[in-house]
Design goal:
Largest sheet: 14 strands, mixed
CATH architecture of the largest domain: 4-Layer Sandwich
Function: Putative phospholipase.
GO molecular function, one term: phospholipase activity
InterPro entries: PLipase_B-like
Radius of gyration: 25 Å
Keywords: Glycoprotein, Hydrolase, Lipid degradation, Lipid metabolism, Signal
Number of strands: 24
CATH topology of the largest domain: Penicillin V Acylase, Chain A
EC number: 3.1.1.-
């Protein structure tokens, strides 16, 4: 009896100690919470501007969409234990409880391995029970995610708010973006028949149905986070905050499109007549309209850009000895760091038996609050729910309902990914659509298309359904289901869609992939009409191949090093490749780590900032079928030094671990050193590791 008592007391003390540590960590994490909408409201009050648009009432956090009873200890909640959202059959009351109860309408867990692997792992599932509507199920799933990952959402949002405010040189731009989001939110609610606290009949349109489901999920995520934030006396988030957070991947484009001058030019353009969008399906044109006349001055010179920050003498010396090609590269680097994300490739093995796909995300290192997510959504069989992809695996971030990287493995048999297309011709910002023409926030639009599409044709047609005019991208959709069924590449296996302001062009380019053996994506348009409209044709004629689709340095590197590639381990090496100066010597460009498949702008000798490649993901046909992609998080570190937020700089002395290498750049909650390895991604609450990699090639 005495032994049992001691054992029980020890367990109790361990449990109490663990609970205390969890509570202390959560309180500390929430202490730095931020709200962009609150910051903008405060900024507007301090610096009134008669020309700035006023808010539409979404700055204040909304109350819960549905009443929720908290049935667990929020001080000691361990996300790894999981939680469930249940519904009382008699009263319809929702209740969140600890643990995984498969009789509840939604449940999940969060394995927070950010500090040991570079990203956490989140699993969510909705039940197939008919006790609740699909609206309520999706809200419950979102609530579970918001509750489980609340600490990381708070850290991610605080970092992004600081980034936005740090980079805001046009004080009206963020105000204009916020007002745009609020008008868009109101327009979307009308489209999806959303009325607060009122349930409506199912929408017939499959796309709008899933926009509605995703919006309920987003609201649930906000409520799950806010219940934690309020408990720990932190700043809650509004729906405008959630849209800002999820829109961060194309915030660089938004800031350019909504600055004072661009907004003024767009108003003048809209007064000339109705807005029209050009859609090109292969060679068929629909609703053509002439491009706007250039109305803005040419981009500022490379010299002016470089003289704004850093050591002006060093930069002047570089420019004095620079060739025209090098100056063009410097201008391109400025574009990419603001709104250019990702390298990607699709490779057909020489024997035609497999298709290897790799994707590398580029972004500010402050955004690396990474979570790989797996959703399993039971919403009823087709055609009731029109859910084509009930299982979804995707790289993501805390608080994001979609990927953010735009890398989705879908159980429909489709893989969807993109790279962004930086806009060179700023006059095209006049073609940004108003909220009535593009009422669905871009991230929700992509989520809905991915969940409903059954084929590559269906998926690209859905994405083409709306063009906001910002977040210009090159979308690739691989139909692995068709590839496996046919035993090789056939028509309609690989689709490409490109969007730029006012123009969408898409089609089946399987024949291109088959004839070349690969398709490369490096932030340059493939279609000539898109390239011309965005300014790439003229830039290439004036400055050379840095603006070319297939002859730019990254494209040349990808094509050269993938020529004989047939194994997954080769693709892993390629998508994290940064061999500066070796890869730069024959290109005539600076021997700089920013010129690579996986860039490291933090190591640049010209204008270093903590920006560059932040991950890599790869699949083959069998890994795709098993929904077990492989990934690595963080900037490439072989053979380069691992990125660190703090540590010794040069000959610095003293406590080196406390020296901030990047003063002013936010990194709440992020590991200091990023030297993580590849992991196999699958839904497991156990530890992941590089020793568990399995290059499945038979399926």
């Amino acid at each position: 009896m005495r032994i049992f008592s001691r054992w029980f007391v020890c367990l109790l003390l361990v449990g109490v100690g663990r609970s205390a540590r969890l509570s202390s960590h959560r309180r500390l994490a929430f202490s730095g919470s931020r709200s962009i909408s609150a910051s903008l409201s405060q900024q507007q009050q301090q610096q009134p501007n008669e020309g700035a648009p006023s808010g539409q009432g979404h700055h204040q956090p909304s109350g819960r969409l549905f009443p929720m009873e908290i049935g667990l200890d929020m001080e000691a909640c361990d996300p790894l234990d999981g939680l469930s959202v249940c519904m009382n059959r008699g009263t319809g009351q929702l209740r969140v409880i600890k643990g995984l109860d498969h009789t509840c309408i939604a449940y999940g867990w969060f394995n927070d391995t950010l500090s040991t692997e570079g990203w956490g792992h989140l699993y969510l599932r909705t039940s197939g029970h008919d006790i609740a509507s699909n609206d309520v199920k999706m809200y419950a799933a979102g609530y579970a995610e918001g509750f489980l990952s609340a600490v990381r959402i708070g850290e991610m949002n605080a970092n992004l708010v600081d980034l936005l405010l740090m980079e805001d040189h046009d004080t009206d731009a963020l105000q204009n973006i916020g007002a745009h989001f609020e008008r868009q939110l109101a327009a979307m609610k009308r489209e999806i028949h959303f009325h607060h606290h009122t349930l409506v009949d199912e929408i017939d349109d499959p796309y709008l149905k899933h926009v509605r489901y995703a919006f309920f999920q987003l609201w649930g995520m906000m409520d799950g986070y806010n219940d934690n934030a309020r408990h720990f006396h932190a700043t809650p988030m509004s729906m405008t905050d959630m849209i800002f957070l999820n829109s961060h991947p194309y915030m660089g484009d938004l800031r350019q499109a909504f600055n004072t001058q661009a907004s003024h030019e767009r108003q003048k353009y809209r007064q000339t007549g109705p807005q029209q969008q050009q859609v090109v399906v292969d060679d068929s044109h629909v609703e053509m309209s002439p491009p706007p006349e250039p109305s803005q001055p040419p981009p500022e010179s490379v010299a002016a850009v470089l003289m704004q920050t850093g050591d002006s003498r060093q930069k002047a010396a570089i420019l004095n000895n620079a060739t025209t090609q090098v100056q063009a590269f410097l201008e391109w680097s400025r574009l990419v760091r603001r709104s250019g994300h990702c390298s990607a490739m699709v490779k057909v093995t020489d024997d035609g038996s497999d298709v290897l796909i790799g994707h590398t995300t580029w972004s500010d290192y402050s955004t690396m609050t990474r979570i790989w997510k797996r959703y399993e959504l039971n919403l009823g069989a087709l055609p009731k729910s029109q859910l084509a992809a009930p299982r979804i695996s995707f790289s993501s971030y805390a608080g994001f309902i979609g990927s953010g990287d735009s890398f989705y493995v879908l159980s429909s048999g489709l893989l969807l990914m993109d790279t962004t297309l930086p806009l060179i011709d700023k006059a095209m910002h006049t073609r940004v659509a108003d909220e009535e023409a593009a009422p669905i926030p871009l991230f929700l639009h992509v989520v809905a298309c991915g969940r409903t599409a059954t084929t590559g044709t269906h998926l690209t047609s859905c994405v083409a359904r709306q063009n906001t005019g910002y977040g210009s991208s090159q979308w690739m959709a691989m139909d692995y289901g068709r590839f496996r069924q046919s035993g090789g590449l056939t028509d309609n296996a690989f689709f490409l869609l490109e969007q730029s302001p006012g123009l969408t062009h898409f089609g089946d380019i399987t024949h291109v992939l088959s004839s070349k053996g690969h398709f490369l994506s490096t932030n340059r348009p493939y279609y000539d009409d898109v390239a011309k409209g965005m300014g790439y044709i003229e830039a290439q004629q004036e400055h050379g191949n840095i603006f070319s689709y297939d002859h730019n340095p990254r494209a040349v590197l990808l094509a050269h090093h993938s020529a004989d590639m047939s194994e997954l381990h080769e693709l892993r090496q390629l998508m994290t490749r940064n061999r500066s100066p070796l890869d730069n010597r024959e290109s005539g460009l600076p021997e700089d780590p920013s010129i690579a498949i996986a860039a490291r702008f933090d190591l640049s000798k010209i204008d270093p900032i903590p920006n560059g490649a932040i991950d890599a993901k790869v699949v083959n046909k069998c890994l795709f079928a098993a929904m077990m992609p492989q990934g690595t998080s963080g900037p490439p570190h072989i053979p380069l030094p691992a990125f660190k937020w703090r540590g010794a700089i040069g000959a610095s002395s003293g406590n080196a671990s406390e020296i901030e290498r990047w003063p002013g750049w936010p990194h709440r909650g992020l590991p200091n050193e990023w030297a993580f390895h590849w992991t196999q991604i699958f839904p497991s609450r156990h530890a992941y590791g590089d020793d568990a990699l399995d290059d499945i090639d038979v399926c």
